[in-house]
Design brief:
The protein is an alpha/beta fold. Strands 2-1-3-4 form a 4-stranded parallel β-sheet. The structure holds 4-nitrophenyl phosphate (4NP). 4-nitrophenyl phosphate (4NP) binds next to loops.
Length: about 150
Amino acid sequence: MPQSILFVCLGNICRSPLAEGAFRTEAERRGLDVEIDSAGTGNWHVGEPPDPRAVAVAQTNGVDIGAQRARQVHPRDFEKHDWIVALDGAVLDDLQAMRPDGARAEVMLFLDHVEGRSGEDVADPYYGQEDGFAVAWTDVTTGAKALADRIEAG
Ligand code: 4NP
């Protein structure tokens, strides 16, 4: 059985689509047998493609995230996935509150996998400057490598 991983942010149009794209690329490079998806805790952007600034920063780095469409996290996600990975601490709190007792999924913070960055958020670039997307890309690629290392370690 492949491991199933869901990345979650607030809107599912900036950070978690970038995390999905970065981790998919890293997993393919390493030949990992994983299923990957993303979602948001909020419903404002359901059905929309990622923010054009997120699409652009991924494209600059050779990753196409343009076909993704936003959706809201659902209670059944906690049965469907092994790991639900929050992009920031507020999202982590919301996911922990939503998690049904005895659910399959383990909920975790993305940057907890990165040495020296435990407890840190991938900052929300939505309302900020353009370079926030470059910072988010660097963070999600760093997180993707660390998460892939953990999966490879078993
Ligand atoms: P994301 O960024 O959580 O990284 O997708 C946001 C996108 C939209 C909103 C907030 C954050 N919003 O409030 O619409």
